[in-house]
Amino acid sequence: MGSAAIQGQLWGARAQDWAAYVEQVCLPLFGATLDAARVTAGTRLLDAGCGAGLLALLASLRGAQVSALDASPGLLAIARQRLPGADVREGDMEALPFADASFDAVTAVNSVFYAADMAAAMRELVRVARPGGRVVVTAWGPPEKCEFLSAVMPGLGPLMPPPPPGASPPHPGALSEPGALAGVLKAAGLRVVDEGEVACPFIFPSTEASWRGNSSAGVNQAAIAHSGEAAVRAVYADADRAHMRPDGSVRYNNVFLWAAGERP
Fold first, then answer.
1. Cα dist from 62 to 41, 55, 132, 160, 241, whole Å
2. Distance of CA 109 to the CA centre of its chain
3. What is the C-alpha separation between 94 and 227, in angstroms, rounded?
4. Cα 123 from Cα 85, distance rounded (Å)
5. 24 Cβ partners below 8 Å, 6+ apart?
6. 9, 34, 186, 240 from 259: Cα distances, Å
7. Alpha-carbon distances, residue 214 vs 134, 220, 221, 235, 251 (angstroms)
8. Tally of CB atoms within 10 A around 1
9. Do 15 and 77 form a contact (C-beta atoms < 8 A)?
10. pLDDT of 9-54, one tens digit each?
11. Total number of domains in the chain
12. pLDDT tens track for 82-96
């Protein structure tokens, strides 16, 4: 069994808050991903792990023929409102419900490291790309370039539930080591054609907006279920306080990595 059932429940608990407060902070990363995937008019694109569909919406504005998949019914409801003419499906990245070689480009923004079997998810992304098509995968940058991870993860880690026996918990920084992201693409049989990084600050107008947005993320929902909302909120209150600007807004400077592979 893949990871869709677990992740879908976690990420859909506060879907509206995710769409309103968090998804848009990734706009620089979405643009870099679409450029790396060479998405233009007529491109057949699959966005795997589409969330509330903002990247897919941007792709449709470029004229792409968009398909999208996510595990969360709550997020998909928003994606379908945004993309009424698109093929938007609920499913598992480890068993994509699409035929072989269906797409010119496949994107997976900050999603593959949540798969129970990341290698299987990568094989599926490659399978549905046509020969010569591109697969673009993204991940968090190194901790020293990601103020958000550095501020939050030390306090959040002890509040997380233990992983199943023999499994490692998904970690946002799992692919931040030099060459790790490209290595995942190579292991899946792709020829790495480009890679880079993009600055992507998380900016929230207030600490309340920061909490509403960040608490909607699946990893925080897991911590809340295991340790209680008060404990998780205290971690964010401390982190936000350290990153608050004079006007009361909160800013975390971050870098995200992307790598583009071409299917032989």
1. 6, 11, 21, 40, 39
2. 4
3. 29
4. 28
5. 54
6. 28, 12, 10, 30
7. 31, 7, 9, 11, 13
8. 10
9. yes
10. 777 778 899 999 999 999 999 999 999 999 999 999 999 999 999 9
11. 1
12. 999 899 999 999 999
pTM greater than 0.85 (yes/no): yes
CA 16/CA 72 separation, integer angstroms? 12
Structural domain span for residue 128: 4-146+164-200+254-262
Give the separation between CA 61 and CA 85, rounded to whole angstroms.
12
Both structure tokens of 86: 């698109």
User: Is residue 231, in this structure, part of any structural domain at all?
Assistant: no
Higher pLDDT, 174 or 112: 112
Q: Which residue has the tokens 């549905």?
A: 128
Q: Around Cβ 186, how many Cβ atoms within 10 Å?
A: 14
Token readout for 160 is 């997380």
Say which CATH number the domain at 186 has: 3.40.50.150
